[in-house]
Amino acid sequence: MAARLTQVAVTGAMGGMGITVVKAILQSGADVIAIDRAAEPSAPHREELQRTAERSGTIVDYYQCDISKLESASAVFEVAVSSARYPLRGLVNCAAIGWVGPSISFPVEDAKRIIEVNLIGTLICAQAAAQLVKKHNFSASFVFIASMSGYVVNKGTPNAAYAASKAGVHQLTRNLASEWGHLEDGPSIRVNSVSPGVIRTPMTASVLSNGDFEQLWTEETMLKRLSAPEDYRGPIVFLLSDASSYVTGADLLVDGGYTGW
């Protein structure tokens, strides 16, 4: 990927998925702008990422930001890219929140917050990154982390607001790809999404602590196992790289066959 993308921004970079994605991108030869609500990763993760960057001759810089806030997010992208040694050529939006609860009584304010972060936050970051890509006139590739929940209902767990936000990410992906794939007055930006299945992360730990759910979801996959963040390294790096140069407006389902029955 180094020949195609030299600087990639990753949001939700300190989460269970985000840290793995940052590491994979560093290993591929690109510098990373790591953006998260947390200021920086825990000491063990920071040391691991620093070792990875040193071995691959890359750099990772950390920035704190709530991606659902337009002005602060735009400012963070501007500062981060202006301070980087290479042009921004990629974006991976991992930032997301969500929790379960019966829809008949699910707090509307909670639903608004989930959609603000997962859907509106994705649009805000895409706008900020696209404006900088256009300004510097380099083509780029954006990858949004959606979910299989944008297609199907997760059996046993009511999460309508989360599922709706991820279905929105699918449609946002297609629309931005159609608008930004060929700009007469600027560079092209490919926009794709990845839809994971159930992942073992801190975000899903409380739900997976219920053994019934873990067994149910495991049996629903064709591979008879749940996923780990490492399962998404290849798909994301592929979509960022020139290996996927004719792929845009697509969603890559990485769900162990869960939705294929």
From TrEMBL:
The keyword Repeat does not apply. It holds the Pfam family adh_short_C2. InterPro entries: NAD(P)-bd_dom_sf, Sc_DH/Rdtase_CS, SDR_fam. GO terms for molecular function: oxidoreductase activity, acting on NAD(P)H, oxygen as acceptor; oxidoreductase activity, acting on the CH-OH group of donors, NAD or NADP as acceptor. Keywords: NADP, Oxidoreductase. It comes from the Eukaryota. The keyword NADP applies. Belongs to the short-chain dehydrogenases/reductases (SDR) family. PANTHER family: BENZIL REDUCTASE (PTHR43008), CHAIN DEHYDROGENASE, PUTATIVE (AFU_ORTHOLOGUE AFUA_4G08710)-RELATED (PTHR43008:SF4). This is Gluconate 5-dehydrogenase. It comes from Cladophialophora psammophila CBS 110553.
